[in-house]
Design goal:
The chain is an alpha+beta fold. It is built from five helices and nine strands. The strands form two sheets. Strands 4, 5, 6, 7, 8 and 9 form a six-stranded antiparallel beta sheet that branches. A three-stranded antiparallel beta sheet has the order 1-2-3. A hairpin with a 2-residue loop joins strand 4 and strand 5. The protein is elongated and about 65 Å long. The model has no long low-confidence stretch (mean pLDDT 94).
C-alpha cells in the first residue's frame, strides 16, 4: 500500500513500517520467499520511516537472523514478524526522544522481490535439485510448489536434496526409490528427495504412504500432461 505524502506527513514522528528483509535488499511484496529462493544465509527485519516509494524510506533500525536450513516461508515469516514487533517496541521510546537517526538507503545496493502468483509454483524438473528444494520451502504455503502426474496436479509439500549426486536411471522428472524406501525425483542436476505430497482433492501425506496406494507412481515422469 502506497500512502500519499499528505497522509505520511500527519503523524508528528512520521509513519514507521516493519519490513521482513535487510533493506535495501529485497524491497517489494515477497521478501521472505525471495530470500529463501535466492539461497540467502541470513535475512532480517528493518524498521523504516515510510516515504512515497516502495520500501525506499530511511532505515531506523535493523536486526539480522540466520535462515535455518529447512525453514519454510511461513516459519521464517512468523519469526521475522515476532522479531520486528519486538524491535519496534524496543526503539519507539528512543525514536520519540530523537535519539535515533534514520539512515538513507543506498539505492545502488537495492534489490526487489517479485509479486507471486499461483503459476510461479510449477516445478521445472530440468533445473537443479538445490533450486527446487529452495522453491518448495520458499513457496510454502502459498502459492505452493506443484507438478503434474498425468492429468492430476500433485503438490510437493516437503522436499530436500538427496545425497545422491546423480542416479543415471532418474532423468529429470522421473520418480524412483532411493535407499531405505526414500522416494526421489531426477532433476537437471542431482536428485530431489520428496518427503510429503498432496494429490488434488486429498490430504497431505508422506510420500512413502502415497506410493503404497499408487504403485504406478514409481517410474512415472512428472510434469508431463
Amino acid at each position: 500500500v502506497f500512502l500519499p505524502r499528505e497522509i505520511l506527513c500527519v503523524p508528528r514522528l512520521g509513519c514507521l513500517n516493519v519490513h521482513p528483509s535487510l533493506l535495501p535488499r529485497l524491497r517489494g511484496p515477497s521478501p521472505v520467499a525471495g530470500a529463501i529462493l535466492k539461497g540467502d544465509v541470513t535475512t532480517g527485519v528493518s524498521i523504516m520511516l515510510m516515504d512515497e516509494g516502495m520500501d525506499t524510506g530511511p532505515v531506523v533500525a535493523q536486526q539480522e537472523t540466520t535462515i535455518r536450513p529447512e525453514e519454510s516461508a511461513d516459519q521464517l515469516s512468523a519469526r521475522l514478524f515476532d522479531m520486528g514487533a519486538n524491535l519496534l517496541m524496543e526503539i519507539l521510546p528512543q525514536w520519540e526522544l530523537g535519539e535515533i537517526q534514520a539512515v538513507i538507503q543506498d539505492n545502488t545496493q537495492a534489490t526487489v522481490s517479485s509479486r507471486l502468483n499461483k503459476n510461479n509454483g510449477e516445478i521445472d524438473w530440468s533445473i537443479d535439485a538445490c533450486h527446487i528444494a529452495r522453491q518448495v520451502r520458499a513457496y510454502y504455503p502459498w502459492p505452493g510448489s506443484f507438478t503434474y502426474w498425468g492429468n492430476r496436479r500433485l503438490k510437493v509439500i516437503e522436499a530436500c536434496v538427496s545425497g545422491l549426486e546423480k542416479d543415471p536411471s532418474l532423468e529429470p522428472g522421473r520418480v524412483g526409490f532411493l535407499s531405505d524406501g526414500v522416494v526421489g525425483v531426477g532433476t537437471g542436476h542431482g536428485v530431489l528427495e520428496i518427503r510429503r505430497v498432496q494429490i488434488e482433492g486429498r490430504h497431505v501425506i508422506r510420500t512413502q504412504e502415497f506410493v503404497s496406494g499408487h504403485c504406478n507412481f514409481l517410474g512415472a515422469t512428472l510434469g508431463e500432461q
